[in-house]
């Protein structure tokens, strides 16, 4: 009894012998439509495939080969592919040319199983929050008076030592401290953050306090994007263990600390990425561009 691989080798050997005999008779066997029609007609109802009877010069008969297609999961088209994989090479011998078969791999079979290697375009990072600070140059602000006089203000020293003030355009929130420090949150760009801090300083100045706009600085920019593919966080954390932290009991995402640019990426299994710690917008795109191909290697099927 032949094994599965043994039967295939046996078929391949018979095909090569048949091609050799045909070439010695100065005929070229091509898997054209007529041959394919003949091969399809040679398939019987009991799922067997018969090779034709041929006799070579030594009188040896190439016997009919019955192949159990049900056992090997083979079809006539599959055997035709076997004929197609046999290409011909010529070898000069004593003034004449003898054509011999040479078996090569079928290129269309390789292409069928080739994995997808094309990386899709990198998504654009969207700025979600800009945190900026400014010094109002006044060490004795009366936060209680400001809270009473200004609209959209909240001051509760038992819960938080700073005053919370909000404006609508640009839509931001300010944390104002009696030392004159102001923190602006919620802006969508650095320009909006600077515009908002100037408006807060103007409101406080209208209430009778001596303030000046000094040392404006962007402290943190937060951006996010969707990769449009799921990520295997366990494999990613194992491959980049030096820079990663993954503990799903405390946080559902992977924390990746990039050294240059110095930012932190929060990568989630569904493909969402949050980038924080950047000082400018270009650092967000630079960080994602540096990590995008590395994350792509660990993509998985969508959950």
Account of the protein in words:
- Helices cover about 30% and strands about 30% of the residues.
- The protein folds into three domains: about 5-115, no CATH class; about 125-220, TATA-Binding Protein, CATH 3.30.310.10; about 225-300, 2-Layer Sandwich (TATA-Binding Protein).
- It has helices at about 5-25, 35-40, 70, 75-85, 105-115, 145-150, 190-205, 235-240, 280-295, and strands at about 55, 60, 85-95, 95-105, 125-135, 155, 165-170, 170-175, 180-185, 215-225, 230, 245, 255-260, 265, 270-280, 300.
- A ten-stranded antiparallel sheet has the order 6-7-8-9-5-10-15-14-13-12, covered by helices on one side.
- The two termini are about 45 Å apart.
- The model is unreliable at about 25-75 and about 85-115 (pLDDT under 50).
- Strand 8 (about 170-175) and strand 9 form a beta hairpin.
- The protein contains nine helices and 16 strands.
- The chain is of the alpha+beta class.
Short description, anyone?
With 303 residues, the chain is of the alpha+beta class.
Spatial separation of the terminal alpha carbons: 46 Å
Q: How many beta-strand elements? A: 16
The topology string of helices and strands comes to HHEEHHEEHEHEEEEHEEHEEEEHE
Low-confidence regions:
27-77, 85-115
Helix content: 25-40%
Strand order of the largest sheet: 6-7-8-9-5-10-15-14-13-12
Q: Give the count of helical stretches.
A: 9
Radius of gyration, Cα only, in angstroms? 38 Å
Overall structural domain count: 3
Into which percentage range does the β-strand content fall? 25-35%
The shape is rod-shaped
């Amino acid at each position: 009894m032949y094994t599965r691989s043994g039967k295939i080798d046996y078929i391949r050997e018979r095909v090569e012998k048949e091609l050799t005999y045909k070439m010695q008779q100065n005929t070229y066997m091509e898997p054209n439509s007529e041959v394919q029609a003949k091969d399809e007609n040679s398939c019987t109802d009991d799922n067997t495939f018969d090779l034709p009877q041929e006799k070579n010069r030594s009188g040896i008969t190439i016997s009919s080969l019955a192949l159990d297609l049900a056992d090997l999961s083979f079809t006539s088209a599959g055997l035709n592919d076997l004929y197609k994989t046999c290409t011909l090479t010529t070898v000069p011998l004593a003034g004449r040319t003898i054509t011999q078969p040479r078996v090569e791999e079928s290129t269309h079979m390789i292409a069928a199983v080739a994995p997808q290697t094309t990386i899709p375009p990198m998504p654009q990072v969207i700025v979600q929050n800009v945190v900026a600070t400014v010094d109002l140059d006044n060490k004795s602000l009366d936060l209680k008076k400001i809270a009473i006089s200004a609209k959209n203000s909240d001051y509760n020293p038992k819960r938080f030592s700073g005053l919370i003030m909000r404006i609508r355009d640009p839509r931001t929130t300010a944390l104002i401290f009696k030392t004159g420090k102001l923190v602006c949150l919620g802006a969508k760009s650095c320009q909006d953050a600077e515009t908002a801090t100037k408006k807060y300083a103007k409101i406080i100045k209208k209430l009778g306090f001596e303030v000046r706009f000094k040392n404006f600085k962007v402290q943190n920019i937060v951006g996010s994007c969707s990769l449009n593919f799921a990520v295997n966080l366990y494999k990613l954390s194992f491959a980049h263990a030096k820079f990663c932290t993954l503990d799903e009991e405390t946080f559902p995402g992977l924390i990746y600390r990039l050294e240059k640019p110095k930012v932190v990426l929060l990568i989630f299994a569904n493909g969402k990425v949050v980038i924080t710690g950047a000082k400018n917008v270009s650092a967000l795109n630079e960080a994602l561009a540096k990590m995008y191909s590395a994350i792509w290697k660990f993509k998985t099927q969508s959950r």
